[in-house]
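New to this. Comment on this protein:
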Amino acid sequence: MKKVFKNSIKHISLSLISFAMIFPMLWMVLGSLKTSKEAMDPTMILPDIIHLENVIEVVKDSPLMKYVGNSLVVAIVTTLIQLVTGAMLAYAFSFIKFRGRNLLFGIVMATYMLPSCATYIPAYVTLAKVGLLNTRAGLIISQCVSIFGIFLLRTAFLQVPDELIEAAKLDGANDWNILWKIVMPVTRSSFVTFGLMSFISLYNNYMWPSLITKDKNQYLVAQGLRSFFIDDGAFGTNWAKVMAGSTVIVIPLLILFAFTQRWFISGLSGDSGVKE
């Protein structure tokens, strides 16, 4: 009886916390189906009539889908590059012995403590000198290395037995083949976790793209949503359509998480897939 009571309290507590976490998104989705007046009424939870035309108008009559496309391209390409660069550096710090390895890794990790805004000016100046301001290439290249990714992948790589690496070298495999044919498959969940977290961060990024991108055709979703729906006043007074736009841009993230949640949770729990 005592165990049943404890389990009931735990389930009720988790349910309340889960509801609190999902409520803002639920409110956003419901708000996208209301009129603008209903969306601003905190006492009205459900719409009197479902207004699907809000979503249809946002998709058809606004440049939102162009912004979604820009964000998808930048986020996908940058995430793939970050996975490659992060894996290569993590492999070097894990399996290649050289003088000063730990010191160099410490220096790399120390840069993670810097606030991102401290790097904006030198990065901006560098991109300006090579002519990559206001371009997708500038957005991608300036974010092609993730310190967090290096740390996460190295933590997973350290769980791979050294005997497995030595056996592969004795069979004639080089470091590149060992990384992608041996280490990566057994630490797949960490790759998925890093990839998903990186994609979400890049897809939702606002501050850095706003600094180097002035052409509205190059805007990412966060910039586009603010500029077209709020700053320019196109739908700025119609909060139902603003919520509809916000709902639309979240859909790619939900689809991605639905397909990768098993590996994502496994990676967060520290299960790299390596069997002792």
